[in-house]
Amino acid sequence: MQLSDTTEEADFRRRLREWLGKTLPELPAAPDPSDWPGRRAFDTAWQRRLFDAGYAGIHWPVDAGGRGATPSEHLIFLEETELAGAPYVGANFVGLLHAGPTIATEGTPEQRARFLPPVLRGEEIWCQGFSEPGAGSDLAALRTRAVRDGDAYVVTGSKIWTSHAEVADWCELLVRTDPDAPKHRGITWLAMPMDAPGVTVRPLKTLAGTTEFAELFLDEVRIPVANRLGAENDGWRVTMVTLSFERGTAFASETVACQREVRELARVARANGAWEDLELRRELATLAAEFAALWRLVQWNVSEAAANGVPGAGGSVFKLRFSEARQRLYDVAARVVGGEALLEGAWSAQRLQGLSYTIAAGTSQIQRNIVAQRILGLPRGR
Amino acid sequence: MQLSDTTEEADFRRRLREWLGKTLPELPAAPDPSDWPGRRAFDTAWQRRLFDAGYAGIHWPVDAGGRGATPSEHLIFLEETELAGAPYVGANFVGLLHAGPTIATEGTPEQRARFLPPVLRGEEIWCQGFSEPGAGSDLAALRTRAVRDGDAYVVTGSKIWTSHAEVADWCELLVRTDPDAPKHRGITWLAMPMDAPGVTVRPLKTLAGTTEFAELFLDEVRIPVANRLGAENDGWRVTMVTLSFERGTAFASETVACQREVRELARVARANGAWEDLELRRELATLAAEFAALWRLVQWNVSEAAANGVPGAGGSVFKLRFSEARQRLYDVAARVVGGEALLEGAWSAQRLQGLSYTIAAGTSQIQRNIVAQRILGLPRGR
Amino acid sequence: MEFRLTEDQHSLQRALRQVVTDRQPSWQELTEVGLFQLRVPEPEGGLGLGLPEAVLAFEEAGRAVLAGPLVGTEVAAAVLGLDGRAEVVRVPARGPVLVPELPTLDHVLLLHPDDSLAVLPAAAVDAAPAAAVDPDRPLWRLDGTPPPGERTPETRRVAADATLLTAALQVGLASRTVAEAVAYARTREQFGQPIGAFQAVQHLCADMLARAELARVAVYAAAVSGDEVEIAGAKLLADDAAVHGARDCLQVHGGMGFTWEARVHRLLKRAWAWEQAGADRERCLESLATRL
Amino acid sequence: MEFRLTEDQHSLQRALRQVVTDRQPSWQELTEVGLFQLRVPEPEGGLGLGLPEAVLAFEEAGRAVLAGPLVGTEVAAAVLGLDGRAEVVRVPARGPVLVPELPTLDHVLLLHPDDSLAVLPAAAVDAAPAAAVDPDRPLWRLDGTPPPGERTPETRRVAADATLLTAALQVGLASRTVAEAVAYARTREQFGQPIGAFQAVQHLCADMLARAELARVAVYAAAVSGDEVEIAGAKLLADDAAVHGARDCLQVHGGMGFTWEARVHRLLKRAWAWEQAGADRERCLESLATRL
Asked: How far is A89 from chain C (nearest CA, A)?
């Protein structure tokens, strides 16, 4: 077991740190969260800088235009950018971390050539059209319908929880092409141009009062068959295959961020007297221990993934513990800051956003089912 | 809403308190817990004193030989005896609180005349033969078999978790008389003499190291048909009917006891310095609030039962909260007493015994099912 | 002992539920129905009822998640004989002093940590508007040092009653979270069955109910006894039932509870706000510890 | 970074599991297999391995719930170069000083709250036998004032290593509770299906696993870094995984876990004992807070 960098990793880290130290001060101020065009411009400009410095698609294969870095290097990248306060992946998220890798793995040479370079260079933004209001955690219950009509699919339905839809060029869309097949079997993956006729984007106001997500309404949208990835009705497999790309790094930046937030909260507590409350001090100490351990779990999962190609079943265990620790972090924060918790501000925004952690991408209840049935081998109920 | 005593209740309380003040100093020292004959003698002598003073079968109907007290008076009785440190019902438990009331409700005049007076006078001890090793929380899955043979049932099987079996005269026994009927339908209630040939009592050592319970092994035990309560195969209903006798008082003494234990723990904490630990102090304060509220819930349920005849569905809610609060009480106690928690003693014995609270008489999981389905009306799963 | 609602109390409960449920009655309507005059003696134009009746009324107000300076207005009328809108505001152990609804108030009843009370004309209070998380409960941040108050048996009553009535609001809100969670769980289907058929959801709801019911009885009993420590215990349980309940209600609603429109979040935001109103957790625990 | 077991570490783990699983090896066997010599340098007759290997070995010992003065004997040999049986005993914040297995010991390593250490010949320790809750871990209660100790870098190492190795025992025990609960839940039937098919039981087991896995990685990482605060965090998580796991394991077993014979209770009793060995929760939290 080894936690320290190899010589190559130390070198990679040093160069990255140097580059960040030089580059970050040159960045313009971050745009207002409600300024979507400003956010797109900021995020794509950052992506372009990464591209020029050779950090774009750090974990993508070299033949897809990526850097082909090792999982450890990927983790160093995520750790260092977070520690340095670099911009988040933002609007490039779906392109770099989901649609891109999916196309890299399952696309034809033409599709790879068409779609991948613009993602790496920060020229095209993708959004994701998977979730539907009626489906929830039962993602495969999606009902958006695609009917073949000549060289196009005609798509009608609606999607929800789509980030960056306002400024996206493309949407990776899951549609139902065979309503009679078992629910995982009749699904197809399509690349939908967001400017196609029939696409309506409606911002979705969340409980935090922001419009970070949108709903998509699709009314007889024509999507060329050439935009289909993989075979018709094979979209579920196509989509799932991409998860192996992730190699344990999914929550790496967030884990580093939470460790920083715990330290910051301790500073706030020392300043406002909350530190004198032994119970709160112990809560903070407990959180520090948990996030430190979660970071070690990230390192463990990444190392396992590097050795075995897949991150293993540890993902659900991580997500369960991380979601709950992070929600507790913001509840503790509310106690530390006292009345401030009732006012809009960074801590209360985090607390509200944080309510999604045990819901989004599979509720904690679903995660526990997965752990119990797939890892522990407990039987399904009647 | 009224929490104070009526004139009659105040009078009842005053007389009881006087009697307890006079009587308790006259009692002999309590026997060692492992001395079963001594325990029987002590418990039955106490019952005889209650009988002589008119407090025996306080909640039993007058025509069954009881006092026919109101639920409020019954509660006062439980509260005052607990506060005064009077003996527990002990070996008389099953006779007074389950078998007796069952016979009083479902028995023939002959059965009532035969069985009830000895219970009230502390002359006969009953035990309960319901649970089986294979059945657990699914009580109705019991498999002890009774086959009719002339004027007797021939019973073979085994029972578990039987208290006071070593010194009991009678056992209220549930047996399966129709193996082909749905599981709740083929059960019959029998009064089994404990000295019948074929009855073997084996003490069961629990995790606390004590033998508070026993296993019963029944090998072709002949039980006269005259000892059957109610009709053949109607034993489940016969047994359940008794629960309406309880009228919300089931955990009353224990709730009073827990309040006393929290106060005692605060005294221990003040003496050994644990009180200086703000977190522990708050834990104790939280427990004080919970047990105070649970006592109010007892009073509420008793008042509802007095008005409506049944305690309502509040029993599961009470048991859920009480079990968990009480287990937490002993966990907090372990933190207060420090290293003493690793040594045998009153607090560690309570902590070990307390592990049963979320298991016995329906696990907390079962209680939550009951609350969700019967009170909240949520649907059963497929 | 007869610790259950009397027929009159049942009637009061039913009547109030009718007024407040599924609509947001105007302040005028709340005043007319007598919400703030329940405990004012009959000779002074009130209904001459007691703390238990006030608690029943405020439970209904909480169930309906009513907005406005409910608690302070009632306490000002019942304990201090003050007409008009008022709110009880506690100077917290740390963080700003926040006054809800300041421009609509006639009086601010400022309670210091030692329970001394300053009765301030609202117009004289120097405060700046602050952006509140709960959109239905606007807040103003007090400027400067809070003026000192005085301690009398009456001021202790203000402190205790405000805590108890807030606890009653929380109990009503907690029951509301149970009702909303159960209603959603009965109809929403996932994996081919209503989510309410999943044991995980059932157990979440069962625990929500258990917390709400225990808190309810605790609040009723504290209203009957009027005891300060019992009130502290009731508030502690009611806050837990409301906050935890609203949190779990949101979890049961899944993604659909995460939208602004779903309004589930308003239960949680209000529960958070009321948790800090009256005595907060730390103060309640301190009070409970004094009697141990 | 390659934060996973090396091939040698896997072999060590397998070898030890074979020695300790499903049997109680004698002290002689444990000594022969080198459990206490893992970290002793090769020139001195040891195996010359590091803290990570010791942690892997103690995880297996914990999984098998081995009895005896394991931690102290290892630390005495590895850090202090002392032969023979020893146990590390902490003077607690309150309550008696308890020495496990005293008559079998050669040394008692007495750690004061300030981490100063007194190395005492066991024969010179004045103590009376006390009835222990854990039947496999007899205790003696120290009489009189514990003799003072001294603080050196070595004594801090004793404190940290003892805490870490105890955490490793707890991680092994926590994994054992998962295995036992799952095995029982797969076979025990209630209401017509294995109880492991009920979501409530599944979720209990899933949380048990999640706690055990997180603690395991934390303990491994602390062994690699050797950092005192990371060790404190690992112990905190390992104690929680073990105690909570054993508690839940008992709940899964229902009434059948409540018998003496079922032996499930031994997991819980040992988890309680090890929770207080090395640094306890309060001390771990204090240590963690110093770095915040």
From this structure: 23
CB contact under 8 A, D200 and C198: no
Contact between B19 and B58 (Cβ < 8 Å): no
B354, closest residue in chain D (CA to CA) = D258
Inter-chain CB proximity D260 and B206 less than 8 Å:
yes
Q: Where are the domains of chain A?
A: 7-88, 127-233, 251-375
**3-class secondary-structure state, position B52:** helix
The domains located in chain D, with CATH, are 154-291 (1.20.140.10)
Label residue A341 exposed, middle or buried (CB < 10 Å: 0-12, 13-18, 19+).
buried
pLDDT above 80: residue B245: no
- Written as one letter, the residue type at A302 is V
Whole-model pTM: value is 0.96
Secondary structure (3-state) at A251:
coil
Supply the DSSP symbol for A90.
G
Shortest Cα–Cα distance, C168 to chain B (Å): 14
pLDDT digits (tens, 9 = 90+) for B133-182: 888 778 889 999 999 999 999 999 999 999 999 999 999 999 999 999 99
Give the three-class secondary structure for C107. strand
From A246, A254, A283, A290, the catalytic residue = A246
- What's the whole-number average pLDDT of chain A? 94
Task: Quickly count: other Cβ atoms within 10 Å of residue A226's Cβ.
Answer: 12
At position B172, the amino acid (one-letter code) is: E
Q: What is the pLDDT of residues A4-62, one digit of tens each?
A: 999 999 999 999 999 999 999 999 999 998 899 999 999 999 999 999 999 999 999 99
What digits encode the pLDDT tens for the residues B55-66? 999 999 999 999
Determine contact: B381 vs chain C, CB below 8 A: yes
- Pick the residue from chain B with its C-alpha nearest to A382: B382
Active-site residue, B80 included: no
**In contact, D220 and D55? CB cutoff 8 Å:** yes
Chain B: closest CA distance from residue D254 (Å):
6
Chain C within 8 Å of D198 (Cβ-Cβ)?
A: yes
Test D213 with A304 for CB contact under 8 angstroms: no
Query: Beta-carbon neighbour count of residue B151 at 10 Å?
Result: 9
Q: Could you give the CA distance from residue B248 to residue B318 in angstroms, rounded to a whole number?
A: 9
Rounded Cα gap, residues B263 and B317, in angstroms: 24
Of C185, C223, C236, nearest to B289 by CB-CB distance is C236
Q: Amino acid letter at B267?
A: R
Q: Quick one: pLDDT band at residue B310, thresholds 50, 70, 90?
A: low
Residues of C in contact with B379 (CB under 8 A): 186, 193-194, 196-197
A293 to D1: CB separation less than 8 angstroms, yes or no: no
* Domain at A251-375, CATH class: mainly alpha
Q: Which CATH number fits domain A7-88: 3.40.50.720, 2.40.70.10, 1.10.630.10, 1.10.540.10?
A: 1.10.540.10
Q: Which CATH superfamily is domain A127-233 in?
A: Butyryl-CoA Dehydrogenase, subunit A, domain 2 (2.40.110.10)
Among C110, C137, C139, C191, pick the best mutation site for testing chain A contact (most A Cβ within 10 A).
Answer: C191
| Chain C contact present for A272, CB below 8 A | yes
What the block records as the tokens of B296 is 């109010």
Per DSSP, the three-state class of B234 is strand
pLDDT at C283 over 70: yes
Helix (H) or strand (E) holding D108: strand D107-111
Q: What is the pLDDT of residues B69-128, one digit of tens each?
A: 999 999 999 999 999 999 999 999 999 999 999 999 999 999 999 999 999 999 999 999
* pLDDT confidence of residue C22: 65
pLDDT digits (tens, 9 = 90+) for A351-369: 999 999 999 888 999 999 9
Cβ contact (<8 Å) for C203 and D198? no
Confidence of residue A229 (pLDDT cuts 50, 70, 90): very high
